[in-house]
Amino acid sequence: MNQPQQLPDPLTAPLEQIDFSDPRLLEQDAWRPYFARLREEDPVHYQAESPFGPFWSITRFDDIVAVDSNYEVFSSEPTIIIGDLTDDMRVEQFIAMDPPKHDVQRRAAQPVVAPQNLAQMEPLIRSRVVEILDNLPVGETFNWVDDVSINLTTQMLATLFDFPFEERSKLTYWSDMATGSPEIAGGDTSPEERIPALMDCLETFTRIWHERKGRDDGGFELISLLQRDPNTADLVDRPMEFLGNIILLIVGGNDTTRNSATAGILALNENPAEYDKLRANHGLIPGMVSEIIRWQTPLAHMRRTAKHDVIFQGKQIKQGDKVVMWYVSGNRDESAIDNADSFIIDRANPRHHISFGFGIHRCMGNRLAEMQLRILWEEIMQRFSHVEVVGEPERVKSNFVRGYTSLPVRVHPL
Amino acid sequence: MPTITVIEHNGQDHTIEVQSGISLMENVLSNSVPGIDADCGGACACGTCHCFIAEDWSELAGTADPMEESMLGMRPDRTEASRLSCQIQVSDAMDGMVIRLPEYQM
Predict the structure, then answer these.
(1) Which of A67, A114, A264, A368 minimizes the number of CB atoms within 10 Å of its CB?
(2) Chain-chain contact of A68 with B44 (C-beta, under 8 angstroms)
C-alpha cells in the first residue's frame, strides 16, 4: 500500500483503507481516533497490506498483556519492530530472542539497573540534573529536547557504559540511527548514513571492550558486567550480537527517558490544573512520573511473530504472521484505565500502564527511568514556578518511537 | 478469618486478616502493607509482587507454573522461596502463614 498524500478520515474511512503503520500518525499526533476506532470496532485487526507487509494490530490493554506474556506462541525473534531487519545489518539482541538464550543474556546486564545499584547512582544523577537546570538560559526561548532531555539521558547512558564522557553525543546519534530507517519504522534515515554510523558504534565499543578487559577492575557498569558473566564473556567475538545488544541498551536507555522528560513539560502545560496540583504538593511526583510514562508511551509498539497457527480473540492468526502490540493504544483503553485520555497526576493506580511491556521482555531499566524522571521533577520544582511551552512541539517520524525533536520553552524561576 | 504475617524487608511485620479465595497479592494490597507493586494487576506478567514464602509453608503455597517460573527467572534476588504473590490463592489452611517481602520490586 502506497501511503496517500493525506491521512484518511479516522471516523469514516473503511478500516481496510487505514494504514495503522503510517509513521505520520505519530508525527502529526493524529493517532488517537484511529486507534480508538480499532479498539471499539476490531480490536484484533488484520491489515493485509502495508509498507511493512501484512500484520495484525492488537489494541486493547488485556489482549496486549496476553500476547506479551505468551512467548510460547508469540516469538520475539527475529525482531521486535514492525519492519524486518535489513540484510545489510542483521543484528541480534536479547530483546529479540526467546528463552533460554534471552534469559541468560538479560541476566548478565540486569544488575546494573537493580534498585540497590540505582540508590548508589542517585547522588550522581542528581548532581548532573542540577548542573543542567542551573545552566538553562533564563529569559530566553530554548529547545527543552536538546538542552535538558537529550543532555540528561546521554549523560546517564555514558555513566552506565562508562563511555568517554566528551564523546557521549555519539550515543544519542547511534540511538537515532538504529531505529530511524524507513524499512524498520518509517523514518527518514538513509542506509548511506545508517550503516557507517552503526559500524562506528561497533568499532568504538569493540575498542572499549578490549581496553576494559585489560583493566579488569571489577567495575559495575554494563561492559564489565557482560565481561564477567560466563554467558556473555565472549560476546565481542560475535559482532552482530555484540552490536545488537549495545544498541538495545542505548535505545532502551535513551529514546524512552528522553521523550518522557519532554512529555512531562508538554502534559503539564496542556493540563494547567494538574500543574497547580503539583505546585501545591511535590509529593505527587512519583505517581506523576508513572502517569507521564503512560501518557507518553515512548515506544508505541512492540512486534511479535506467531510461531504456529493460533486462534486469538476469535481471529485466526497464522504461523509466521506479524503481530503488533500497540502500547500507545493499550494505554488509552478505557476498559483498563479510567479516563485514559486524560493526564491525571494523582491517579489511584498509576503504575498500571503498558509502557514497559509485560512478560519476560518487560523493560529492564524501568526503575532507572522512573528515578531519573523523579529527580528531574524534584529539581525542576525547586527552581522554576513554570516551565512554559511557547511553541508547537515537533515530533519524530516513526511508528515505533513516539518522541519529540523540539519543544520550545521558557523557564520562570521561583 | 485466617491471618497471615507479612514481613517487610526492613523487618517490620504485619499480621493481616486475609480473605480466602482471592490472591495473596490482593490480600496484601488491600491491607495497605507496602512492598508489593503488582503493576500488571495480577496477570503474572510483571514480576512486581515478588515475595518469599517461609519454608514451613512452601508446600501449601504450591509451586510456580512455567509462566511464573519465567518471570521469577528475571529477578536478580530470586531464591528457592520466591513466588509471585498474585499466583497464590489464599485458603483457610494458610492461617498462620509467614511471607517476607524483597528489598525492591522491578
Answers:
(1) A114
(2) no
